[in-house]
């Protein structure tokens, strides 16, 4: 069904409703209207990395791990599998008359906020710190979820619009002060890009931005989203965010006023209950029937596009047997392998899988299922932890497994019957030839607004520091003292500094993020060399000595690889491989006012098949404004056999080559523009770590 037909049918159906009935349809748990044959519908669903909160589903690597793949095709396929399983589950839910929460087809994903500060607990839900990477991968997931058929396979929703990235504990009353330059250079591009690529929903954030509530914002919603970008999909509030307008934000006094303010700025759907006050707002002439009707029509356009009112529902032939099936688990493993970033290898990896040596797997994430999942997760039918994966791959080895520490406390409780775990971990490591240290966090300590949970290291889901908790550092340093061959595997949702001792003594360091239900197998396959690592850092890894700006400061000055002051420990875009690659013959093939096409030859100079992540960066100057050090503007995933060479071609949107002035406008830089091609960022630290420089051309 094309959108115009859906709009016409929505308008016709809504015209048959009373104004009171229309108001009820603006709530996320929309009731049935039996006289019109309309079933109840619950709009709230989550699918950040698989169908979430609705029973069994494939649990893919979390969004930050997807970002580390630097591979839009993989992310697009994940989106396609998500909507396949969504339809399979929906078909059965409808058959059994289950219209409950998390059973519909409107998914409030992806989270395309910019991961501007590594301490943010919800950064795990994002695609990293770069606007281009976020825009590209977010759009890839959306296209996979929504499909390209006659009807929407499922509906995706870009969130949280806009300027939302912590602190978690303050979000209900926080006002993000953002300059027009930062807003249009960093915080808005991914939303613009996903709107241009057809996303059907946008979610407003909890916070205020520059004084106005994001769910009732005259500039962000009425002007930029609806007028400038011509977005005609639906806008939903974050859950209970409209209540904050008359609550912690203190913008208005009553629920009726809060509901009216949001509705007038085209927030169509309320996740919460504040829109029950629309009856009062309507009676007080705070909203008009026309405004209510327009919102209702946009919502019913989506429901028609999903095929809800067709005699034969689209995609009704997708069987439940597709849910977390063997085929999906196989692709999940491939995705997990792609997301692992090798940050250090002194030649120790890979380990011969036929080794008969003793391997100790030590750390709080050695047997952790929650460290595979991350937040906003479903529940897989099979989980392979790090220890499980190592047991399956290294079948000839003598393997010992122990926690060695908890996440952040030496003892969970003083009286829980369990003592300090350190000596057990050291015993295993000291008697091993190789120790795999499985460190990191899980969603019990890192995530969304963990009310009441704060200590010296955590604050309501966020971290206070860029290192790991002291108990884990103590374990890791002690293990490095008793075992010569230590490989660190980090599993968490952000960048962490392990400290000088561990960084120097560990033979290899892998960052696996929250890698999904097959994550342990992916780690083991990389340790054994079955798969050569190809992941790239989607965030900057800062040293604990780095002076990161105040968490509440939304200025981009000193933040991310684009505006960092000083040197990163490990830069954005960095990641090692078991192979080595060379680049040559970088050139512009064609050029027009909107885009240019470039190509570069990439050769695998090793004797193994391996994946490479080709990256294009722009460097430009403008006398009128501060420009980024570098700006990612192209990515491509390529697989090369031993000694093989391929020509990689990419289209570069000139949008990413423009300077952003103080008023937020984009313009051609008045200085030069250079493009770089390589497997990493063209900064000095990346050149030092890789021993390679990028190819460069001047435009």
Keywords:
Rossmann fold; 3 domains; TIM Barrel; alpha/beta; 6-stranded mixed sheet; 21 helices; 4-stranded antiparallel sheet; 29% helix; Immunoglobulin-like; 699 residues
Q: Residue share in helices? A: 25-40%
Count of individual domains: 3
Strand order of the largest sheet: 9-16-15-12-10-11
Tally of strands: 25
Q: How many strands, which pairing sense, and closed or not: the largest β-sheet? A: 6 strands, mixed
Number of helices: 21
What's the Cα radius of gyration? 25 Å
CATH class of the largest domain: Alpha Beta
Q: What is the fold named in CATH at topology level of the largest domain?
A: TIM Barrel
Average pLDDT, all residues: 97
Instruction: Give the full name of the CATH homologous superfamily of the largest domain.
Output: Glycoside hydrolase, family 3, N-terminal domain
Strand content: 15-25%
Give the termini distance in whole angstroms. 44 Å
SS class: alpha/beta
- For the record, the CATH architecture of the largest domain stands as Alpha-Beta Barrel
Global outline: globular
Low-confidence stretches: 412-417
């Amino acid at each position: 069904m094309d959108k115009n037909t859906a709009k016409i049918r929505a308008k016709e159906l809504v015209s048959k409703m009373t104004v009171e009935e229309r108001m009820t349809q603006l709530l996320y748990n929309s009731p049935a209207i039996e006289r019109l044959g309309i079933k109840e519908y619950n709009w709230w669903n989550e699918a950040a990395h698989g169908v979430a909160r609705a029973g069994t589903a494939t649990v893919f690597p979390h969004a930050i791990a997807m970002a580390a793949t630097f591979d839009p095709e993989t992310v697009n396929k994940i989106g396609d599998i998500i909507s396949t399983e969504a339809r399979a589950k929906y078909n059965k839910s409808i058959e059994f008359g289950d219209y409950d929460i998390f059973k519909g087809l409107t998914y409030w994903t992806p989270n395309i906020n910019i991961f501007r500060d590594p301490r943010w607990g919800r950064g795990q839900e994002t695609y990293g710190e770069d606007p281009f990477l976020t825009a590209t991968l977010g759009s890839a997931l959306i296209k996979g979820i929504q499909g390209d058929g006659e009807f929407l396979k499922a509906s995706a929703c870009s969130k949280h619009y806009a300027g939302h990235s912590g602190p978690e504990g303050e979000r209900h009353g926080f006002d993000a002060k953002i300059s027009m330059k930062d807003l249009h250079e960093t915080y808005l591009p991914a939303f613009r890009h996903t709107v241009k690529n057809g996303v059907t929903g946008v979610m407003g954030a909890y916070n205020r931005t520059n004084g106005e509530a994001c769910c009732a914002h005259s500039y962000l919603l009425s002007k930029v989203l609806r007028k400038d970008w011509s977005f005609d999909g639906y806008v939903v509030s974050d859950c209970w965010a409209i209540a904050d307008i008359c609550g912690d934000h203190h913008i208005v006094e009553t629920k009726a006023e809060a509901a009216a303010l949001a509705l007038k700025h085209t927030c169509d759907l309320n996740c919460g209950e504040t829109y029950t006050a629309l009856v009062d707002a309507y009676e007080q002439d705070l909203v008009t029937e026309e405004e209510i009707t327009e919102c209702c029509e946009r919502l019913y356009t989506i429901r028609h596009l999903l095929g809800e009112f067709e005699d034969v529902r689209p995609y009704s032939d997708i069987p439940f047997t597709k849910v977390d099936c063997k085929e999906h688990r196989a692709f999940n493993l491939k995705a997990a392998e792609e997301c692992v970033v090798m940050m250090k290898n002194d030649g120790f990896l890979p380990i011969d899988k036929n080794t008969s040596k003793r391997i100790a797997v030590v750390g709080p994430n050695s047997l952790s299922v929650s460290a595979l999942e991350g937040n906003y997760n479903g529940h897989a039918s099979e989980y392979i932890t790090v220890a499980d994966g190592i047991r399956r791959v290294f079948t000839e080895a003598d393997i010992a497994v122990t926690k060695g520490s908890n996440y952040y406390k030496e003892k969970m409780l003083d009286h829980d019957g369990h003592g300090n775990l350190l000596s057990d971990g050291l015993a295993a490591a000291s008697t091993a030839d190789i120790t795999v240290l499985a460190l990191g966090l899980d969603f019990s300590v890192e995530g969304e607004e963990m009310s009441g949970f704060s200590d010296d290291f955590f604050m309501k889901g966020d971290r206070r520091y860029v290192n790991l908790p002291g108990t884990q550092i103590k374990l890791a340093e002690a293990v490095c003292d008793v075992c010569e061959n230590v490989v660190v595997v980090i599993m968490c949702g952000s960048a962490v500094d392990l400290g000088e001792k561990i960084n120097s003594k560990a033979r290899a360091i892998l960052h696996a993020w929250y890698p999904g239900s097959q994550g342990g197998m992916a780690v083991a396959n990389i340790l054994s060399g079955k798969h050569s690592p190809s992941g790239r850092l989607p965030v900057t890894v800062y040293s604990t000595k780095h002076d990161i700006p105040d968490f509440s400061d939304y200025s981009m000055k000193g933040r991310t690889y684009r505006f960092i002051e000083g040197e990163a420990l490990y830069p954005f875009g960095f990641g090692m491989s078991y192979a080595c690659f060379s680049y040559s013959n970088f050139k512009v093939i064609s050029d027009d006012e909107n885009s240019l096409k470039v190509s570069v030859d990439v050769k695998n100079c090793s004797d193994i098949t391996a994946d490479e992540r080709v990256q294009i960066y722009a460097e430009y100057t403008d006398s009128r404004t501060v420009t980024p050090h570098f700006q990612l503007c192209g990515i491509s995933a390529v697989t090369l056999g031993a000694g093989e060479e391929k020509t990689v071609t990419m289209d570069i949107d000139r949008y990413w080559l423009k300077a952003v002035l103080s008023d937020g406008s984009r313009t051609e830089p008045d200085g030069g523009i250079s493009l770089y091609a390589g497997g990493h960022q063209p900064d000095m630290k990346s050149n030092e770590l890789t021993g390679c420089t990028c190819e460069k051309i001047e435009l």
